[in-house]
Amino acid sequence: MRKILPILLILALLAGCAASDPCAQRTVFCMDTVMDIQVWGNERQQAVEAIVEMLTELEKTWSATDENSLLSALNRGEGTLNDAQQAFLDRAVKLQNDTGGAFDPKLGSVIALWGFYDDNYRVPTADELAAAKLQPQWDLGAIVKGYAGELAAKVLADYDVDRAILNLGGNVQTYGEKAGGEQWRIGIQNPNGGDALGALLISGSMAVVTSGDYQRYFELDGVRYHHILNPKNGMPADSGLISVTVICADGAVADALSTALFVMGMETATEYWTENRNFEAVFVLKDGTIYATEGAQLTGCEFEVIHCEN
Ligand code: AMP
Ligand code: MG
């Protein structure tokens, strides 16, 4: 069996630290992914340190693989939550309800069956999947990095900093305006490899989160099994999409929605956008076609625009 854990490319979103405009930059490995932080302004160094501390704490709390995490304790029926932790779980459950269950924060036992926790990959039987579904276990992997971006923006607000950009393993969080009033330019990874697909132009503080079938998967007998599961049957979602990017002011929502819209597929995802309109999105279909909702400022590629019919 071939085990593949592709290294997440940090795309050309980094503005770079010019000598005339110094920034503090740190790359850390956290939450099973590479994270990159850049901050500009007087207290940039202190802000970066505080963000790294927050990320470390968040990982210790919500890790699905660390048996000492609070999340593992909750899954054993132990542990006590503080108000902020309870509020985060409540938000996850609300997003589950809002998305008709496409985002499911309790897929832990199903994810474990596929071997995504210990890299011991296998294809479970339908019976095993059905049994696992009856034993819900928290897994917040589809929301916690977006939440981390959101918390990072809160940390930054406590410091004298001008602006920042974070790439938390494909979850990008911008903070503040770029110098000279320019927009942030966030590359969208090409799901089929190679150069970036295109770039999103972003103003101010925003979360830009991508879920894709190329981000984590294994192959067996020529079949690719990826990590975004359809909660209905526990199988890798086969919705015709290979990548969904969500742009939203709220990081946790952006992250949960990128996963949920991937599971829903284009048609239901478009309906969801039309009904909610609190985010913009870019969809890439299996055949390579790109669709973007009308408010997404996508550049550098050809795409169809999804208009709101209401
Ligand atoms: P993301 O990369 O944000 O789309 O999240 C994918 C991760 O979330 C997976 O690695 C699983 O840990 C978990 N997951 C997979 N499918 C779902 C789902 N439908 N709802 C919630 N979490 C999921
Ligand atoms: Mg997600």
Tell me the radius of gyration.
19 Å
**What small ligands are held by the chains?**
adenosine monophosphate, magnesium ion
| C-alpha end-to-end distance | 49 Å
- Number of helical runs? 8
Overview of the molecule:
It is a single chain. The protein has helices at 44-62, 70-75, 83-98, 108-113, 126-133, 144-157, 251-264, 266-276; strands spanning 2-4, 23-30, 33-40, 163-168, 171-175, 184-188, 198-202, 206-212, 217-220, 223-226, 229-230, 235-236, 241-248, 280-285, 290-293, 298-299, 304-306. With 310 residues, it is α+β, with helices and mostly antiparallel strands. Helix 1 (44-62) packs antiparallel against helix 6 and helix 7 (251-264) runs antiparallel to helix 8. The chain is globular. The N and C termini lie far apart (49 Å). The model is unreliable at 1-14 (pLDDT under 50). Magnesium ion is lined by residues 142-143, 211, 255-256, 258-259.
Give short descriptive properties of this protein.
9-stranded mixed sheet, 310 residues, 8 helices, binds adenosine monophosphate, binds magnesium ion, 3-stranded antiparallel sheet, alpha+beta
Give the structure's gist in a few sentences.
The protein has helices at 44-62, 70-75, 83-98, 108-113, 126-133, 144-157, 251-264, 266-276, and strands at residues 2-4, 23-30, 33-40, 163-168, 171-175, 184-188, 198-202, 206-212, 217-220, 223-226, 229-230, 235-236, 241-248, 280-285, 290-293, 298-299, 304-306.
What is the secondary structure topology, with strand pairs?
Blueprint: E1 2-4, E2 23-30, E3 33-40, H1 44-62, H2 70-75, H3 83-98, H4 108-113, H5 126-133, H6 144-157, E4 163-168, E5 171-175, E6 184-188, E7 198-202, E8 206-212, E9 217-220, E10 223-226, E11 229-230, E12 235-236, E13 241-248, H7 251-264, H8 266-276, E14 280-285, E15 290-293, E16 298-299, E17 304-306
Parallel strand pairs: 15-17
Antiparallel strand pairs: 1-9, 2-3, 3-4, 4-5, 5-8, 6-7, 7-16, 8-13, 9-10, 11-12, 13-14, 14-15
The chain binds adenosine monophosphate and magnesium ion.
